[in-house]
Protein: HAT C-terminal dimerisation domain-containing protein
Amino acid sequence: KKQSYIASKNVHNSQSTTNNNYEVLCAINDTEKDDLLNKDQDSKEHIQSDQLWAYLLNIRPNTTPNMKLIISYVFSIPCSNAYVESIFSHINHLWSDYRNRMDIELVAAELKIRKNADTPCTHFYKFILSQDDLLKK
Structure:
């Protein structure tokens, strides 16, 4: 039963910690819970950490409300800084020696456009040229 609970958690959905497996959790006895926690280290079965915490926090959901919050914060920390590095790379490209007198707001605006716009530069340039009210400002 514990394996069926964890296997059912392989598909992530927004209600992963709600009533979907309430009946399964209620049917699991303490011995089976202890077996899961004290599983043989040499076993070839692997449980992902998010699935383990979902299981542990759903055993008795009302006894550890703060632990659920802490675990949620821990799993929200990105495991890589690749996105931040890409931002710095864009900033270094924007603020070159040639463009070193740019205002911070201009760099921020251009960076937002680069990261959030999915329109190619040529299309955006043609669009801006067609907007007379923007060109007058």
Q: What stands out?
A: The CA atoms of residues 72 and 113 lie 31 Å apart.
